[in-house]
Amino acid sequence: MENNLREFSETVIEIKRISKKTKGGNTIRFSALVVVGDKKGRVGLGLAKAGDVSGAIQKSIAAAKRKMFRAPLRGTTLPYSVNEKFSAARVLIKPAPKGSGIIAGGAIRVVLEAVGVTDAVGKILGTKNKASNVYATLNALKKLAYFDMIKNMKEGINEL
After folding, report:
1. Quick check: 7 pLDDT over 90?
2. Is the Cβ–Cβ distance between 34 and 50 less than 8 Å?
3. What pLDDT does residue 6 have?
4. In which residue ranges of the chain is CATH 3.30.160.20 found?
5. What is the pLDDT of residue 106?
6. Could you name the CATH architecture of 71-159?
7. Mean per-residue pLDDT for 35-60?
8. For the range 126-132, what are the long-range contacts, defined as Cβ-Cβ under 8 Å and sequence gap of 24 or more?
9. Has residue 86 got a pLDDT over 90?
10. How far lies 77's CA from each of 7, 46, 54, 89, 115, in Å?
11. For residue range 76-85, what is the model confidence (pLDDT) as tens digits?
């Protein structure tokens, strides 16, 4: 029963205080960006708002669990090198030899650790916006999953 409680690793990347001008004054809310992963190839991202920080984090975790997808792994690293752009963010992720660890900046590092990658090289080339960099990293992993699916389909066709 204890293993079920910690099935996923949850990492809060960013908490922002949001203020909205209204007729009655300013209303203050909080936004939380959370990455959830099982360290076995599944990862998801949640971005949610609430009136208090803990509520925003809980809503983000629930959203991340709903949006989880499987990223391909080759042992402890990634199968291919990929360059991805999202908004003003550009990220480059490359496989690395076993034992080299994750050599990457904050946003990329958190996502790769949540997926279960232990050896990879990553570089943030565009903006320093954490949310954009996380979305770009997730898109890069989705692109890897797509490449892997196509490769598996071609291998299946060749076997016939």
Report:
1. no
2. no
3. 64
4. 2-69
5. 86
6. 2-Layer Sandwich (3.30)
7. 96
8. 126/85, 126/88, 126/89, 126/90, 126/91, 127/87, 127/88, 127/89, 129/87, 129/88, 129/89, 130/13, 130/14, 130/33, 130/106, 131/13, 131/14, 131/33, 131/47, 132/86, 132/87, 132/88, 132/89
9. yes
10. 21, 24, 33, 23, 10
11. 999 999 999 9
Whether 104 and 123 have beta carbons less than 8 Å apart is answered as yes
Round the average pLDDT of the chain to a whole number and report it: 91
Looking at the chain, the domain(s) classified CATH 3.30.230.10 span 71-159
- The Cα–Cα gap between 96 and 91 comes to 16
Task: Tell the residue number behind the tokens 């809503």, with chain if given.
Answer: 59
Q: What tokens appear for 59 in the block? A: 């809503």
Collect all residues with Cβ–Cβ distance below 8 Å to 31 and sequence separation of at least 6: 14, 15, 16, 18, 47, 48, 49, 56
Residue 70's H or E segment, with its range, is strand 69-70
- Say which CATH architecture domain 2-69 belongs to: 2-Layer Sandwich (3.30)
Q: Model pTM?
A: 0.89
The pLDDT > 70 percentage for the chain reads 95
